[in-house]
Specification:
With 637 residues, the protein is an alpha+beta fold. It has 3 domains: 278 residues, Bira Bifunctional Protein, Domain 2 (BirA Bifunctional Protein, domain 2); 173 residues, YbaK protein; 98 residues, 3-Layer(aba) Sandwich (Rossmann fold). The chain contains 17 helices and 34 strands. Strands 4, 8, 9, 10, 11, 12, 13, 24 and 27 form a 9-stranded mixed β-sheet that branches. A 6-stranded mixed β-sheet has the order 1-31-30-32-33-34, sandwiched between helices. It has a 5-stranded mixed β-sheet with strand order 17-15-16-18-23. Strand 12 and strand 13 form a beta hairpin. Helix 1 crosses helix 13, helix 2 runs antiparallel to helix 5 and helix 2 crosses helix 13. The radius of gyration is 30 Å and the shape is globular. The chain starts with 15 loop residues before the first strand and ends with a helix.
Length: 637
């Protein structure tokens, strides 16, 4: 399906609707809890109304926008070889017994007990349901690949629903699931993933959105590779980091940091700046508070986070308990995904009681805490593994936790305070690269690695001498390579051509339909209201009669509406007995792309007033017999 398809054609009739025959309750008042422009505008323009916290009615204008998004989604997914089905919104808890996602989602999962005491969930996604369906339907490689999708209402029990449709408890989503016997080659996961990437690009392009496709972490869904599709807007809730030269883009959790020069004296090398000084730091919850109290900058502090390796019972029996201590500079944030990748282990933040039993004073841990402990790997970020400051020409001054509650220390020194053995373990480090490996079966227990979130100004990983720049965006789509996470857990197994049985390889592809509508408004509005891109506008043209009792205006309104609809244009006819001023304000508020005004003065010259919503110009008078063609050109342009 081409992404350059015209918005309107004469292949189907457009809709003609009278304002007086539909429900458009515009208002000058914004909701008291409105935090973002889309919440304000969609409410004021009569698109949505709240039913409860995070639950909304979609009024006629909103429903028309949502239908247009869904139509584009269906056309592009069908063209990509996917087939539509519909699964139930209610999921039996039995489906979670192998995947444990009821535990992963926690309180965000709506739980419903039926009259017989059985637990069900209002579905946040449908991985378990679709996998269970495939178990009963698929038993041979000859039935694959397969790509199925639905457009369905989903549910999340948000603790604090906010931002209107951007974070609510009930929302409309498209989710698709693909099934394969291989990753590579014809019919493999990669082929479908690439096809879905192209389909998503077409979808959001056809919607008229300014968007970026960014590399992303998979999050609670699971899987390996993934991309997010983000609508670019200054009010976006997510930070995107981009390389302005290569086009590389990723969210903060996934973004790589390009090569940085190693310290001239090597990692960890540098003389102590003084003897260790212990300071009592009670009631200081964060790095900034401690830094201010100790009169140092956050970048002179070391932040130490303790992770537990999320071991299977088999791994636990083989390797015992395993811990990872991640160290970054105080002004940086540890990236859990990078810790996982650097260590080669699945990790989770350590439970405080477990960690304290191991000897870690959570909140006050220093790198010294690893000394003498078995089963512990320390990962040090490159910017934290510095003993000598090349810019200042002197040894690095570090402040760390004191390894006991409510204490920190000044003058930490890597070589002095970790001792000979850890430094010997790090002696193989060089400017040419950094070790990779796993705690398991590896004698390394100190490694330098990229384990922090990237920041604007960091070196680009794709273009030399180029810095990453930041943008803001709203996630509207996400595609994942799930692998065998769900098929293996639930037993979706098929026989290959040699009759060998293997778990099915899966992909997952989501689009927030109602979220896309809200994100479009975030991207495209002004002080007067919404400015819809033509593909998503509930109506393409608004015809406003200045005097509805004027028979000439009535006749012309009917004539133009008919001619436009025959060319595939959707028309809203403002037939309200209102003064022109309120009509024009409402027109700007609801955001229809083209406004044609029928007034006595213009009609006396054989014309009508023609105005584009996105233009700041007052409009122009266009000949009556030319206005239909001009409107279609404007919509398709």
């Amino acid at each position: 399906m081409s992404s350059s398809r015209s918005v309107v054609t004469n292949r189907k009739l457009g809709v003609v609707q009278k304002w007086s025959h539909t429900l458009i309750p515009t208002t000058r008042e914004a909701p008291k809890d409105a935090e973002v422009p889309s919440h304000v505008m969609l409410h004021r323009a009569g698109y949505i109304r709240p039913v409860g916290a995070g639950i909304y009615d979609y009024l006629p204008l909103a429903w028309r926008v949502l239908q247009k998004i869904q139509d584009i989604v269906r056309e592009e997914l069908n063209a990509a070889g996917a087939s539509e089905l519909l699964m139930p919104a209610l999921e039996p808890f039995e489906l979670f017994k192998d995947t444990k996602r009821d535990e992963t989602y926690g309180d965000n999962l709506f739980r419903v007990k039926d009259r017989k005491g059985r637990m069900n969930a209002l579905a946040p996604t449908h991985e378990e349901v679709i996998t269970d369906l495939m178990i009963g339907c698929i038993n041979s490689y000859k039935q694959l690949p397969l790509n199925l999708y639905q457009i369905q209402t989903k549910f999340r029990d948000e603790a604090r629903p906010r931002a209107g449709l951007l974070r609510c408890r009930e929302f409309i989503m498209k989710d698709a699931y693909s099934f394969h016997t291989t990753v590579e080659g014809a019919g493999g996961l990669n082929t479908t993933y690439d096809a879905m990437y192209r389909a998503y690009t077409n979808i959001f392009t056809r919607c008229g959105l300014d968007f970026s496709a960014v590399e992303a972490e998979s999050g609670p869904i699971g899987g390996s590779a993934s991309h997010e599709f983000m609508v670019n807007c200054v009010s976006g809730e997510d930070t995107i980091l981009k390389c302005p030269v290569s086009g590389y883009a990723a969210n903060v959790e996934k973004c790589e940091v390009g090569p940085r020069p190693a310290p001239s004296k090597g990692y960890f090398a540098g003389e102590p700046t003084g003897t260790l000084e212990e300071h009592h730091t009670p009631g200081l919850p964060g790095i900034d508070d401690v830094a201010a109290f100790m009169k140092v900058k956050p970048e002179n502090m070391l932040k130490t986070i303790v992770f537990k390796v999320d071991s299977t019972p088999e791994d636990l029996a083989k390797y015992g308990e395993e811990w990872i201590v991640a160290v970054v500079r105080g002004d940086h944030d540890v990236n859990e995904g990078k810790v996982r990748d650097a260590s080669g282990c699945k990790v989770k933040l350590a439970d405080i009681k477990e960690a304290e039993a191991k000897g870690f004073a959570i909140g006050f841990v220093s790198p010294r805490a690893v000394v003498g402990k078995k089963g512990v790997l320390m990962l040090v970020d490159r910017d934290a593994a510095v003993g000598f400051d090349d810019k200042k020409g002197k040894s690095m001054f570090w402040v760390t936790g004191g390894d006991k509650k409510d204490y920190h220390v000044k003058h930490f020194n890597w070589q002095r305070d970790l001792g000979k053995d850890p430094m010997d373990a790090a002696s193989h480090l060089s400017d040419k690269g950094f070790p990779t490996g796993s705690l398991r079966g590896d004698d390394k227990y100190l490694m330098v690695a990229d384990i922090r979130n990237a920041l604007p100004g960091d070196p680009s990983p794709r273009a030399a001498n180029t810095a990453l720049v930041a943008g803001r965006g709203i996630e509207v789509g996400h595609i994942f390579k799930l692998g065998t996470k769900y098929s293996q857990a639930m037993g979706l197994i098929v026989a290959d051509e040699t009759q060998q049985k293997h778990p099915v390889i899966m992909g997952c592809y989501g689009i927030g339909v109602s979220r896309t509508m809200a994100a479009c408004v975030e991207m495209s509005h002004d002080a007067d209201g919404i400015v819809w891109p033509a593909p998503l506008a509930p109506y393409h043209v608004l015809i406003t009669m200045v005097d509805i009792k004027n028979e000439a205006q009535q006749t012309l309104a009917v004539k133009l509406s008919k001619e436009l609809s025959e060319q595939g244009v959707d028309v809203l006819l403002d037939d309200r007995d209102e003064r022109p001023g309120p009509k024009f304000k409402d027109a700007d508020l609801i955001g229809i792309p083209v406004r044609i005004t029928l007034g006595e003065k213009a009609m006396a010259t054989g014309g009508v007033e023609f105005k584009l919503r996105k233009s700041k110009d007052k409009g122009e008078v266009v000949a009556i017999d030319a206005v239909v063609a001009k409107a279609i050109a404007a919509i398709n342009g």
